[in-house]
Amino acid sequence: MSGFSKYLQNQVITNTKGYLDRAYGTDNWNNGIRWYAKTNVKLHDLADARKTSFDKLAKLTSILSPSVPWDKNIEIALTLFDNHRESVPVDQIIIMGWKSNKIKGYNFLDGNVDLLPKSRKTYPFYRNLCLDADYVTFDRWMMRELFTKGQTLSSTIRYEQLRDIFFDIANDYGILGYQVQAICWLQMQTESEDKRIKVMYA
Fold first, then answer.
1. Comparing C-alpha atoms, which of 119, 126, 101, 120 is closest to residue 36?
2. What is the CA radius of gyration of the chain?
3. Which residue, 132, 76, 93, 87, is CA-closest to 109?
4. Whole-angstrom Cα distance, residue 177 to residue 168?
């Protein structure tokens, strides 16, 4: 499949810079700058407490991340990890998210599958949790907000185009690509909530 047109790439550039500019000087900017670093420390502490590796817990968190709220993501990963350690059958474990991801996470803990670079959302998220600045995470929320009309990461070239756009913007602002993503993600959440409140009380 072909990549994004120049028109769509320009949409991403305009929208991304808009979110960054509106976030500048706010908690969203400051929290976005630190988001991955703080999460990295948290996952290290949780992995140490369970006598497992950070890498394993970061991959599991990423595998289970699609379509779940971030504030539940780590909790879900810990629930699956703890139940797997107790040999609870996967079909008896109830967690939020897609059943296929739960099964993949369980099989990952069994050592039967791994998280691979071909996963264009979850693998970059795992790498960003490791503070690897060579990747940028784009989830469904980001994709919906970056474009005027819905688009998908349906090819590697599309991922690379968006990643490189974020790298260029990050260079302009003197920050990292995954920090651009985190700031935008937080700002998108804030603006979405503001719109919801306005509609509710209109």
1. 126
2. 18
3. 87
4. 8
Q: How far is CA 16 from the centre of its chain?
A: 16
pLDDT one-digit tens code per residue, 79-123: 999 999 999 999 999 999 999 999 999 999 999 999 999 999 999
Residues 136-179 have pLDDT tens digits of 999 988 999 999 888 999 999 999 999 999 999 999 999 999 99
Angle between helices 70-85 and 27-49 (to 10 degrees): 10
Question: Could you give the C-alpha distances from 25 to 14, 30, 32, 116, 185, in angstroms and in order?
Answer: 19, 7, 11, 37, 16
DSSP-H helix ranges across the chain: 6-23, 27-49, 54-63, 70-85, 99-110, 122-129, 140-146, 156-173, 177-200
